[in-house]
Write a structure and sequence with these properties.
The chain is mainly α. The protein is built from 3 helices and no strands. It has a single domain, classed as Orthogonal Bundle (Helix Hairpins), CATH 1.10.287. Helix 2 packs antiparallel against helix 3. The longest helix has 27 residues.
Amino acid sequence: MKASEIKELTAEELQEKLKSLKQELFNLRFQLAINQLDNPMRIKEVKKDIARVLTVMKQQELESIKNA
């Protein structure tokens, strides 16, 4: 997922996206542990997506504080 797509999401959508990404990361790590992971690079992609979502959430939080 691209950063520009993430920036367009609302706070609630970001929370849901973060929750689903964390669940996906858990599942990927579980698959890795039992040697059933098809694409190990997907773990790296999901981690970066989580970081992007968290970054956008923090930016939105700081903007709301600044504008208050």
